[in-house]
Design goal:
With about 650 residues, the protein is α+β, with helices and mostly antiparallel strands. The protein is built from 29 helices and 17 strands.
Amino acid sequence: MCGIVALFSRQEPISETSLKRGIDSLHHRGPDAQKIWISNNGRVGLGHRRLSIIDLTSGDQPISNQDDTLHIIANGEFYDFERIQQDLKQKGYNLRTHSDSEIAIHLYNEFGTQCLHHLRGEFAFVIWDERNQTLFAARDRFGIKPLYYTMHGDTLYLASEVKALLAAGVPANWDHEFWFRADLGLFSPDRTFFKNIYQVPPGHFLLASDTNIQLHRYWDFDYPITGDAQPQQSVEDYIEQVRHTLNESVKLRLRADVPVGCHLSGGIDSSAVLGIAATHATEPITAFTLAFDHEDYNEEAFAREAVAKAGANHQVIPITQSDLAEHFADAIWHCEMVCINAGAAAKYLLSRAVQNAGYKVVLTGEGADEIFGGYVHSLMDMLRYNTKGQDEQTIKHILEELKRNNQVSAAAGFLPEEISKPLANVERLLGFVPTWIEANAKGYAKSLSLYSTAFMAHFGQQDAYRMFFNEIDVKGQLAKREPVHQSLYLWSKTVLPYLFRILGDGAEMAHSTEGRLPFLDHLVVEAVRNIPVSFKIRGMNVKYILREAVKPYLPDMVYNRKKHPFFAPPSTLKQSEPLHQLIQDTLRSSAFASVPFYNQAAVVQFLDQIPEMNENQLASIDPTLMKMLSTCILQERFSLT
């Protein structure tokens, strides 16, 4: 895991000072080594900050091939690299290092951009092809590792984080349109909160030459088309397939020249990863668990059961509202995102504890909900639109119970009483409205009174949903697919990469730790995508097929547990504590007055009403408060104009 910066000028030599400033800003991503390379004509510069994990002695980057015509900087991991190294040696390649990163440069020499189909892992990298005067940059299939780019003047800038582009001289401005769309939960695969700064989308690569810049997709989910003849397997066969592929994925991710630990929440996903890892490890694995100071959010008891089952070591990290308040701004600086919960600060502190314990690598359970349908909104999508293969009486009973208990709305805090015109357009396009999109629409409607007049005058009449779906391959990836799969696809392609920067890469790399995600190995995903929805969600049991596949690795207490999403306790539940005081002080300050999206007078009036709210109301407004707080901090920390 590392930090990378690349500059490519079409005419004049690049600024070596800019390159160094960019790479210096990423010290937290790679404290072990720093190195730059500049081409003979001065128009290309590559910079690398290294976190040494594989090949501790000879793996410094940039790495060049034998005749110095190809040069690479890489961030992340390529798994099963030793097999590829042997294949390359048999083809006559003389490898200069034992690093996994070097295989990409020789695979590119063999296959060009098609080398991506030979790479397995979480990665972002840049290759300069001297012979063809071409810059090739790529990002992993799911956007686990970030890769940002922009054109400034006549120079193309690429980096692992936005702050590196800014340090290299790129101006910092808000992208107002993206902020508007993000506030609706509609994240573009290629946009950021920073004007004219873009992401290489997940599963894409970028090609740049003196004349143009192109983006190309090399991988997508390709969920099965409804009605196509699929080889139908028994539930037992699917269980065995999931268990086998997940075991292989975990085993590959244990390969490192440094100790490997695990993040452990106490849920099925992280507990399964720990349990499987324990069967492949030669020594007890250390698991790291956050313990919040609120009973409803503290999963320590479940984590202890998982640790005992796996025979692992355990480090529990207590987190208070004071801790979250103290480190929230730093967490926002690292993740470069607007957040709806203080979980970013909690994961930031978890990463610090991992580093302090002497670890650089952890396995995590992220991604399981996205591919197995583990969220409440996936369950509701099934119940509302996708009951094929379910037991009819069971579904009828569930719906009657939900209606009787009024939980159809309460389950996820969603469902407007009637569909608005923009959502009606979504329904016309897809044939249904994904529950998570509908839920976000309700949250947005509640915030309208807080926006500034100028902001609403500019964006109030825009159809954010139309703009969002204009960027989605509806015909190629959504049409004729099961509704649950369509909804999972949209979430995974747009929301998930942003969650990675908040709760994954951003928080982890703040303290030089690498997160590895066994559930998002592309071979695992390609196996899971073809499993029928009725096996992923069975009745009220989300992730049914996963739960059964990993049952041997779980204690009964975790196996029988219902889904518990990762959230820090809402600040509003303890209004005398420092986190809520931080919100109150910030949103009433002169700094917040300059945030262009909100009407501060309306916000202050809203804050004054908080003491009169009940507990449900307090929990429901916390995301709105956290968005305002993180927006203000983002503006201050990056001097956004």
